[in-house]
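Supplementary Methods. Inverse-folding protocol.

Structures were first reduced to a discrete structure-token string of length 247. This string, shown here, constituted the complete conditioning input.
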């Protein structure tokens, strides 16, 4: 909808320029090359950003696997040894997921995960308690390995959400889009309807690409009305599991 609104405004401007006789760019062989070159550069940037987006899609499943592994291993240990604060562990794990979702929300610009990282660090004292209760070193090493996986997932998501991929490339793409739209806007052509339709279609491609790059750069966009964000439904299901009667 946002792209269509921008393109509609550009179409009105194109028709106004045509009726006013302000078109000064003549048709030549460089115009198609300029458009094709712009699309190529945008495709190159999109392919690079898409790699991070695909990696972000793996994070919720990996995060859930680590949380469940920590919970299930400690729950198994409590069946053999008394005195383990299993409920405290569940509260801590639930607080990690809550902090993650809150940090990815619109109120925190989708990129504030310091609280979630701090909550993961709070699991460490529980491991010390388990060691004092007689948990084997192999089990402790496994638990700390799962904790490191949680940290790695959070750090990776934090980095992807926070950092803009090659800012200079963004400047280049924005310059290319503005240049293409400008030259096509003032391109001399016979008639009004056909050139306007072609201009609208090409403008739609370039403007949509800018919006798409912005969306892909932040795969997690909780609280936004979009279907393009990476879903964390696996973590919400885990919250129900850890909070339900069976837990």
């Amino acid at each position: 909808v946002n792209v269509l609104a921008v393109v509609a405004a550009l179409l009105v401007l194109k028709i106004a320029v045509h009726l006013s006789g302000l078109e000064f760019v003549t048709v030549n062989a460089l115009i198609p090359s300029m458009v094709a070159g712009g699309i190529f550069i945008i495709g190159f940037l999109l392919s690079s950003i898409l790699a991070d987006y695909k990696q972000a899609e793996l994070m919720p499943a990996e995060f859930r696997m680590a949380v469940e592994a920590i919970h299930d291993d400690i729950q198994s240990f409590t069946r053999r040894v008394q005195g383990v604060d299993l409920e405290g562990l569940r509260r801590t794990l639930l607080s990690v997921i809550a902090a993650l979702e809150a940090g990815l929300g619109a109120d925190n610009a989708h990129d504030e995960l310091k609280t979630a990282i701090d909550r993961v660090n709070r699991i460490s004292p529980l491991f010390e308690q388990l060691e004092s209760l007689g948990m084997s070193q192999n089990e402790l090493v496994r638990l700390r390995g799962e904790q490191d996986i949680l940290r790695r997932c959070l750090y990776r998501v934090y980095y992807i959400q926070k950092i803009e991929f090659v800012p200079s490339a963004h400047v280049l793409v924005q310059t290319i889009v503005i240049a293409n739209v400008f030259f096509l806007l003032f391109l001399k052509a016979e008639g009004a309807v056909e050139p306007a339709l072609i201009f609208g279609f090409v403008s739609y491609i370039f403007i949509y690409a800018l919006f798409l790059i912005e969306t892909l750069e932040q795969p997690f966009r909780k609280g936004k009305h979009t279907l393009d964000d990476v879903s964390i439904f696996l973590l919400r299901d885990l919250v129900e599991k850890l909070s339900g009667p069976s837990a």
